[in-house]
Amino acid sequence: MKNLLLCISFLILTTSCVSVKRYNEQITNLHSIEDLQKDVDKLYKQLKKNHPRLYQYTPKETLDFKFDSLKKSIKTPMNSRAFYKKLAPVVANVRQGHIAVSSASKQFNKQERKELKKKKFEFYDLDFEYLEGKLWVKANRGKDSTLVGSEVISINDEPAKKLVETYKTRFSSDGYNTTLYNRYVSKGFVYYYYKDKGYLDSLEITFKNKDSLFTKILKRIPKKEKTTEKLADSLKNIKPPKPSKEEKKEKKRLAKKRKKDNRKYGYISKRKQYTRNFNFIGKDSSVAYMKIRSFTNGNYKKFYKESFKKIDSLKTKYFILDLRDNGGGRIAEIEKLYSYLTDREYQFILESEVTNRTPFFKYLMSNTTPNGLKVAAGILSPIVLVHNLLHVKKKDGKLYYKFGESKIKKPNPLNYKGKMYVLINGNSFSASSLLSTHLKATRRAIFVGEETGGAYNGTVAGIYKLYRLPTSKLKIRMGLMQIEAPQKQTPDGYGVKPDVEILPTVKDFQSHSDPQLNWILKDIGKL
Asked: Which of the four, 33, 230, 334, 355, has the lowest number of CB atoms within 10 Å?
């Protein structure tokens, strides 16, 4: 039995190594013109088949022309990464922010991955901000804090501005909104650089701080290992005292509490920060401030219940909800949060338009789905099928999926009734835009900042299909459901706009000032 298991393990490892090698060869080889053109056709066919609002912002004739022109522009063989650079800007013409094309990146075998985990790339520790046509270092999670506030002039001799403006053509906001681009490219600059250049061991970056130019080489360096201080020879044999029962119990209690708090607030270990933060500004409890970085992780129900219970008991006069740089997440979470912010019955989303009676099979049975998940989906197919058929109905010649959030709901008994402000920017996208739509349409809050990157009238998201193109191996992600609130605005294709527009500036960035939040505090007499 033991020998059999060893043989199976060896075969799996060997197969994995072979498939990794084959994949890497596939994406680096030059693909024929004909095969690349077929990939273009395959991608467009998938979009037409699965996307319920493909021509919402760009007419069919225009998109047809764009994809046809792309095919005609392929006049020489190219590898997958070069193809990605031509394909992504064309897909961005759909103007639907949840559609994304991924570049084909090198894969690593098990041993290589093990070695990679021992190091970290200093470049990945940097956070960036793109303001007034310049790229700035916003933060550094590494050791060199002197880089923070510096302008990035070039990376490996390529002008930083040229890189940024190129990357902005490879993704899209929802509709005609423009505020998302600078914010999103700032947040994802490292990611887009990797998609563009692939795996690198080092980078030469030229920075500018005030009038001084300097160059740094950022490398892959060994991760910091936990070390224990060596005791002096005379203390070597001295053992620390055994913890008492009470100390053990207290340590266990604190560890349990930390685990619960990490789940409740949504701990992000990479950044050592929480997804959800709640506190009071000033010396009293009159101004509550809630910063939500996303609606994706953690025990949100407990967090909102505890927060609004505290607000209610302390009779808080002002509530500030900060949705800046919140890229979205779960519909269930934003519906739960909204129940604490309204005092009337509401329908949070309409029934969602889909292109198929079984959208969850589209999600589960794509060519990127792991075989194990496909087997599980096959076993559970009767349940999934019944669920889909019960939730999908045909109306006026179209198919609609009914979420639980489509039902009429009552406000939470702890709903907040005081004065409310919402902070938004171009990175307020998807679910955070949907929540903002409700609060804006009902005039529940004063909005401060800049137009959201997500559309007021909804977005195509919900569940996704991830499809891999046969030749280039590029992946295309597309939403399968139109998610929208009952409220609408005209013209279509724009975000939730602020009542008080305050745009970020380099001066604010360099002085670490928050003019949007400061305006609110001044408005309520706290500044």
From this structure: 230
